[in-house]
Design a protein that fits this description.
Number of strands: 6
Number of helices: 6
Strand order of the largest sheet: 1-6-5-2-3-4
Strand content: 5-15%
Distance between the termini: 31 Å
Order of helices and strands: EHEHEHEHEHEH
Helix content: 25-40%
Length: 173
């Protein structure tokens, strides 16, 4: 059961994820979280570096779709100017949003990766759905109310995984 909370990979930032490496793994699509994965939870738009990352993915033919537990206004405000499809109020880690994302992207789950900053929502939901998962370090040191509760549980899981040598983890400074 605990293995469902363990990501397949971990990186410091989405910007470290290169399209060439994804393509070598047969990945054609990315399901990504928004808040504290792509941008800080209180930042309304993409950074210049993130815009370049999205462009690299597009040029490589890798589709990107945002799946967020946040509300429609937040997710739409970020995604619409970038012409990115999205699912809001996803209720991650429930599998429905992941299945919907796979269908919208028109790919198989084996051709997809889930990227996120939370074990309890992104990694657990992706793993339960049979999708390759990549955990990123949260961009901001602060979180919204519900995420702060999740982080307390996550810290216990992270400590356990670290002691067992199953994961390396860093906090943002």
């Amino acid at each position: 059961m605990l293995k469902l909370f363990l990501p397949n990979e971990q990186v410091r930032s989405v910007l470290e994820i290169q399209p060439e490496r994804l393509k070598q793994k047969g990945i054609k699509a990315i399901i990504t979280d928004l808040d504290n994965t792509l941008v800080a939870w209180d930042r309304p738009d993409a950074t210049p570096e993130l815009l370049i990352w999205f462009q690299k993915m597009r040029e490589a033919g890798i589709k990107v779709l945002i799946v967020s537990n946040n509300n429609q206004k937040r997710v739409s405000t970020f995604s619409t100017p970038l012409d990115l499809p999205f699912i809001f109020e996803a209720r991650k880690p429930m599998g429905r949003a992941f299945r919907k994302a796979i269908k919208l992207l028109n790919v198989r789950k084996e051709e997809t990766v889930v990227i996120g900053d939370q074990l309890l929502t992104d990694v657990f939901g992706g793993n339960r759905s049979g999708i390759y998962t990549i955990l990123v370090i949260p961009i901001a040191a602060t979180d919204g109310f519900w995420t702060r509760i999740n982080r307390k549980i996550e810290r216990r899981l992270m400590t356990f995984f670290q002691r067992k040598g199953m994961i390396q983890w860093e906090e943002r400074n």
